[in-house]
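User: Hey, quick favor. My workstation is busy. Could you predict this chain's structure for me?
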Amino acid sequence: MTDVLTTFIPVADAIAAVLKPHAEVVIHDLGNGRIRHIANRMSRRAPGDASLTDIADIESLDDAVIGPYPKTHADGRSMKSVTAVLRDGRRKAVGLLCINIDVSMFEAMHAMSKEFLHFAKVAPRPDALFREDWREEINDLVGAFLGERGTSLAGLDVTEREALVAQLDERGLFDIRHAANYIAKVLGVSRATLYKSLKRVRQDDM
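Assistant: No problem, here it is.
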């Protein structure tokens, strides 16, 4: 059994290396209920210690992969864990490979992002600053178009891009000097491609 688990030690070390310092990887020996190996140890546990805590998290060994599931570190940090059941040549479960990722930092970043993006009092955009800025109008229209469709500029197909060009044309934005250059840059196409799209749009409206 020990030999079977030994073959998984490099796997545990590799996973821990790529996720370091945010994760530890533990191999449990189901034969004796003890820890066989720990990579990037984040607790006081050591190989040879009883692994009752981790094994108690597992309700069934029928699945090859169990989780992800939440855990709490001894010091109170939130963890996200996933477990792979290790089997021998006879498909008997002989060990567990548990990956425990410290997500407390990401939770803090998420909370900070929510606070940073929250406006207790939103002031209206000063029209005096934007009334003559046709670039801002183009940006707003493009942003609204993409938001309604839940996509990005890179995700637009030809038909969708021409629908966007049609909306820009309806607003008279192509009549503004230098606007076509800016629109082409925003859409990530050449001026020639943009004017071909505009020509097709206007022909369809005739």
